[in-house]
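[Meeting: bench + compute handoff]

Bench side (C.D.) handed over the final construct sequence. Compute side (W.E.) agreed to return the predicted structure before the next meeting so the bench team could plan truncations. Sequence as handed over:
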Amino acid sequence: MARKINSVAVLGGGTMGAGIAALCAQKDKKVLLLEINEAAAEQALDRIINGRPPSLDDPEKAKNITIGTFDNDLEKIENYDWICEAVVEDLEIKRDLFKRLEPLRRDGSIVSTNTSGITLSDITEGMPDRLQQDVAVTHFFNPVKVMRLLELVPGQQTTPDVTQDLRDFCSNVLGKGVVDAKDTVNFIGNRIGCYWILAGLHYGIEALNEGFNVEEVDAMISQSMGLPPTGLFGLVDLVGLDVMDLVSKNLSDNLPSEDLGLKFVNLPGSVRDMIDRGQIGRKAGGGFYRVQKLDDGSRKSETFDVITGKWRETIKSESSGAPVTLDAMFEDDNQGKLLWQIVGGTLIYAADLIPEISDDVVNVDRAMRWGYAWSEGPFQLLDKLGPKKVSSRIVSENGTNPKMLTALNKAGAEKFY
């Protein structure tokens, strides 16, 4: 049966929950936003209206949002078509909330979780068939208002109409680029994206010890390679080392035993020292970079020297060398080595994850473009490099070709597209 979504109950008013609530309200849907207490609910609404930037394009749309608390207002979800859970990324907290909401919702309503990496099977294990049939993962990316990607993940019992109705609503009403993912740890975007960042931290720190500076590494692992303009260390500052610490622990506990990403789940010692000092990124005043306000009112950009443990003036990007292209990873020098380790390694990792995380390369490429701001996805980049060239390099280093390169070779095809 088709299930029309005209009202949305968002459970959790943090960054993601508030963003989802605001987006639905902006599209003139009736929204119930619940938090743990009244103060938290009011703060969530205030962030939606008065945040920088505000979550709503039109402040008048805030009238579409009703706030409340889990203890006093959870029963109101019986009046809502879609119940979207967006509480803290903790399995037991999510399971407890699902157990509470299931008897309160009406027949025909849809339930989803905004988890960024906990499998749906873990969240719903042992729960009633009605819930299992009506539930899916709707993983929005932050900031919800800006990021195009939404990963849609059904469970083993999820009915096709639930998946289709969520896809239609999130695509046609909310304007998201919906990617179909499988119920595996971290889904598509975060599975590949976190490998890229964590491998980058390990090899990037090694490069600093070998004579590169932070700005040089960021200039290499950046826009000219089809990657975000922040560069590697700049992106880590934006995400936060505390977040990467939690991510690494989650991956350590949940990645398959043979997964290549397990090599990078223990953060480098110098990065661990930064976390212990509270030097975790932009939200804490600095990580690998910071901006200092001087007495005369001007601002000074500084970079943390991991080797000396001291701050120094940031080297301007124009003095960090010429733009680096993809082919540079095949050069026989230290730069080529670093690019092959980080970028090449990520492409190889992605090419070994089908069909585990997705049934096709298109969804993987879209996830990385729409969720991680890559200009092209892993398989598009492999096509640019030349799959046979990459495959030959792997073999020359006594490596094993990933599944999709092997499949391409067996099919006698030159490229993925």
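W.E. noted at the follow-up: The longest strand covers residues 299-305. C.D. will use this when planning the next construct.
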